[in-house]
Amino acid sequence: MQNYLTHHPMDSYMHHITVLLNKLTTPKRQVPLKQQLSADDLIARLEIALNTKSPVTIQINNSLLSEDVANIYGYVYQNNKGEILVQSPKTHSMTIVLPGTIRHL
Q1: For the chain, N or C: smaller number of CB within 10 Å?
Q2: What's the predicted TM-score (pTM) here?
Q3: Cβ(47)–Cβ(78) under 8 Å?
Q4: Residue 76: beta bridge partners?
């Protein structure tokens, strides 16, 4: 019985309230905001990142209408469709990056 309760927590009202309070009180991770680069600078740096074999850090906006940012680290590639892909060196997973969301490279 104890094993069952450990793997299947009770879905009670108090459990939901405590989980909600924990989410609200935990501090959110802040990514330092870098200066927004101009389009010409971004194109030049993106071209260099595509031609080199070293990983880079790209700071992107989480959406087109917000200032919430995230950093993506990895190797930059471009596929036949023109999409920008970033491959993580640790997990080797590919992430598609929208060009309009890139703010710093």
Answers
A1: N
A2: 0.65
A3: no
A4: 86
Q: What is the DSSP string of 19-36?
A: HHHHHHHSPPPPPPPPPP
| Domain boundaries along the sequence of the chain | 39-104
Q: In angstroms, rounded to a whole number, what is the distance separating the alpha carbons of residues 76 and 40?
A: 18
DSSP code of 59?
E
Helix (H, G, I), strand (E, B) or coil at 99: helix
With contact defined as beta carbons under 8 Å apart, do 69 and 61 qualify? yes
The class of domain 39-104 in CATH terms is mainly beta
Q: What's the pLDDT at 65?
A: 77
User: In this structure, are residues 34 and 57 in contact, taking their beta carbons and an 8 Å threshold?
Assistant: no
The low-confidence residues of the chain, meaning pLDDT below 70, are: 1-11, 27-30
